[in-house]
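Need residues for this backbone.
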């Protein structure tokens, strides 16, 4: 038996807790029906994402919080932002990245908790350890989520859905936290699926349904399509995946640059990306929101120097170096700009300090009040792979 959403799509919604989805026995019956046959669709990918992760850890560790709105984030007087909120607080409109002061305006009765990163990191290690028992290819994306490729698995008679179910139960038993799982034949669909029936969801998009699922998907729900791209898509009349499908890869490249061909693939429910066991870091950086807006150029430069220094040190510890630098400036009106520069050689500390000043001046702040400054170094490579020009210089 298959659960039908909107009477059409045989996508499985197997919730354990919430009102949505199949009952456990019905779900069990349906799980056996998954057939991942076919060419482009012969992989079995699971995406696991913890529910309201930081907030759930706080609720678990302090039962008096149960049922109350909980926000994990920075202090409002220090212009902190919300890291996450539990589902009770989300009903009041609170969400990640919202200034805490705004969040508390939406939900004054919320309990605000300062993040305990060490605890979340250790719970995350526990969760990743569980995932590695179910697949060799586990790719963590952040502390609370990961992809698994279970294509060749003999666990649970090879049923990816059963494996996802077993993982959820294992996580719940070991950590007393709930996770949501998405199961499909590629990363894009598995990730989209895991977010569809939160919390405690298990959503399966079988190969036969991938293309039609994507067609009905609102464009803003496509992974990687942010607000700005969504607005541009709307201007082109693209509201759903079906609208996106009307454009060729060439046309989308014309409108969106090289990422256009990626959108064209997504529109067809295709995503060839592999689950990569250890992902190399693509960027490293840090940022700071000031307790009060700043206008003093020297002070801002000092902050940027410190950020550059800290970032280079972090990379050096891992024997890495970077060839691009981006600075981010957010003004008091929340308008944000970035300036990026790439180099032919990796940046050492002296060069990086020089360049950050050049980038900052390029931003032409004209005494505008700044609330946040950040630096990111990217195009990261191993120091051992970087050319060492001084060794090769010909005099
Ligand atoms: P998410 O998985 O995006 O969110 P979540 O687990 O809190 O809630 P959901 O049930 O919707 O998955 O992020 C995981 C954690 O990462 C989150 O608990 C806190 C942290 N985080 C931030 O610190 N800032 C952010 O902007 C986001 C999105 C997350
Ligand atoms: Mg999460
Ligand atoms: Mg997540």
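Answer:
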């Amino acid at each position: 038996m298959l659960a039908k959403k909107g009477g059409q799509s045989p996508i499985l919604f197997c919730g354990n807790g919430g009102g949505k989805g199949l009952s456990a026995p019905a779900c069990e019956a349906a799980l056996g029906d998954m057939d991942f046959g076919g060419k482009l669709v012969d992989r079995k990918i699971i995406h696991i994402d913890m529910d309201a992760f930081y907030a759930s850890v706080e609720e678990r560790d302090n039962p008096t919080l149960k049922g109350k709105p909980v926000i994990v984030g920075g202090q409002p007087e220090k212009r902190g932002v919300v890291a996450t909120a539990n589902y009770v607080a989300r009903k009041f409109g609170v969400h990640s990245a919202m200034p805490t002061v705004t969040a508390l305006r939406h939900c004054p009765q919320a309990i605000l908790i300062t993040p305990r990163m060490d605890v979340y990191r250790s719970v995350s290690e526990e969760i990743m350890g569980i995932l590695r028992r179910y697949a060799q290819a586990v790719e963590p994306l952040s502390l609370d989520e990961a992809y698994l490729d279970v294509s060749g698995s003999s666990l649970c008679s090879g049923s990816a859905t059963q494996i996802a179910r077993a993982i959820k139960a294992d996580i719940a038993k070991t950590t007393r936290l709930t996770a949501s799982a998405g199961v499909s034949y590629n990363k894009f669909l598995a990730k989209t699926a895991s977010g569809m029936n939160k919390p405690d969801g298990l959503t399966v998009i079988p190969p036969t349904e991938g293309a039609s699922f994507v067609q009905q998907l609102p464009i803003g729900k496509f992974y990687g399509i942010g607000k700005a791209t969504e607005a541009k898509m709307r201007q082109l009349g693209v509201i759903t995946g079906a609208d996106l499908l009307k454009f060729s890869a060439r046309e989308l490249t014309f409108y969106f640059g090289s990422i256009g061909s990626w959108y064209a693939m997504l529109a067809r429910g295709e995503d060839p990306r592999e689950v990569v066991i250890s992902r190399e870091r693509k960027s490293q950086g840090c940022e700071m929101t000031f307790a009060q807006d700043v206008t003093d150029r020297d002070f801002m430069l000092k902050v940027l120097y410190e950020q550059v220094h800290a970032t280079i040190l972090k990379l050096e510890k891992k024997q890495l170096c970077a060839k691009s630098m981006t600075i981010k400036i957010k003004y008091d009106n929340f308008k944000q700009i970035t300036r990026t520069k790439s180099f032919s050689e990796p940046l050492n500390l002296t060069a990086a300090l020089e360049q950050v000043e050049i980038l900052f001046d390029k931003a032409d702040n004209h005494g505008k009040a700044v609330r946040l400054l950040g630096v990111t170094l990217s195009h990261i490579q191993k120091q051992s792979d970087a050319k060492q020009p001084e060794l090769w210089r010909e005099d």
